[in-house]
Amino acid sequence: MSISLKQMRYAVAVAETGHFGRAAKGCNISQPALSQQVQSLEEICGTALFDRLKAGVRPTPFGTEFVARARLVLESADALAAFTLGHTGKPDRPIRFGLIPTVAPYLLPEIFPALTKGLPGLDFTVSENRTEALIAGLIDGSLDIALIGTEAPEHGPRLVSTPLFDDPFVLATSRDELTAEPVSLATLAPERILLLDEGHCFRDQTIAACRLDSDPSARTFAATSLSTIVEFVANGQGVTLLPQIALRKEATDPRIAIHTLLSPGAGRLLSLVWREATPFGGTFEQIADVIRSTR
């Protein structure tokens, strides 16, 4: 009995999520159906691909090697399918679109209505993850495009990065704090600047802008979201930089005050990134154009 591409996709999904239920949801099938396919695959292989644990699943040593090889096969299969469909310039499946967490909740409400209206023939599946994971998704073929706030890395497969727009930073403080404007970043007390936890590119950009010690052991606070940080700021427990695109959502609390930064200030350039080796580059450029039009 031969191994199918479908079985390989299911195995990769289980390895990536560490959970049969989440993998099934991501693959749009029932959990029993996915579990049955993985079990059939293990019977073909003659050994277990995953250790079933109370908290989820974990690839066995054989499973780790199998998943790595399956990713290469799936990438080649997707590339072949894209090649055969390349004459249309559009994929025949939803475009897999990844965004960083400091962009997704603020831009999605604007860009998706615009994409639906401007490019009615396209469908999307959306995921949110940190920059490193999004780039990995582009490289292994699990993502088609990613919206990030840093430069795309030069190692690995060649990536196309097209700029969307600048996103300046502002300073958020408690309304009770007396702050002269514009604010010089050099005057901020380093110990009062609240940061996201490690792995967020916005954390790294804040550290660079404020010239902070990047050693995580030197800081006692790290949040998983900008909303958490803003709540601490509102309670007078520190200050933080916010990207301008987040203000409509994060600066509505009357306890918060927003301040401009003294030139040259700080900010980031948002970009849309995809693999150079794709027949859908023209479509992705159209997506970038629509996103720019929302600003």
Give an overview in words.
It is a single chain. It is built from 10 helices and 9 strands. By secondary structure, it is α+β, with helices and mostly antiparallel strands. It folds into 3 domains: 5-85, Orthogonal Bundle (Arc Repressor Mutant, subunit A), CATH 1.10.10; 91-165 and 269-293, D-Maltodextrin-Binding Protein, domain 2; 168-267, D-Maltodextrin-Binding Protein, domain 2, CATH 3.40.190.10. Helix 5 (104-118) links the parallel strand 3 and strand 4. The mean pLDDT is 88.
Q: What is the secondary structure topology, with strand pairs?
A:
Layout: H1 5-17, H2 20-27, H3 31-45, E1 50-53, E2 56-59, H4 61-85, E3 95-99, H5 104-118, E4 124-128, H6 131-140, E5 145-148, E6 159-174, H7 201-210, H8 226-234, E7 240-243, H9 247-250, E8 256-259, E9 267-275, H10 281-293
Parallel strand pairs: 3-4, 3-5
Antiparallel strand pairs: 1-2, 5-9, 6-7, 6-8, 6-9
Helix pairs in contact: 1-2, 1-3, 1-4, 2-3, 5-10
Summarize this structure briefly:
The chain is built from ten helices and nine strands.
Number of strands: 9
Radius of gyration over alpha carbons?
A: 22 Å
Please estimate the helix content: 40-55%
Write the CATH homologous superfamily of the largest domain: Periplasmic binding protein-like II
Average pLDDT works out at 88
What fold name goes in the CATH topology slot of the largest domain?
D-Maltodextrin-Binding Protein, domain 2
Distance between the termini: 54 Å
What is the CATH architecture annotation of the largest domain?
A: 3-Layer(aba) Sandwich
Shape: globular
Question: How would you classify the helix and strand content by structural class?
Answer: alpha+beta
Q: In DSSP terms, counting alpha (H) and pi (I) runs of 4 or more, how many helices? A: 10
> Order of helices and strands, N to C?
HHHEEHEHEHEEHHEHEEH
Largest sheet: 7 strands, mixed
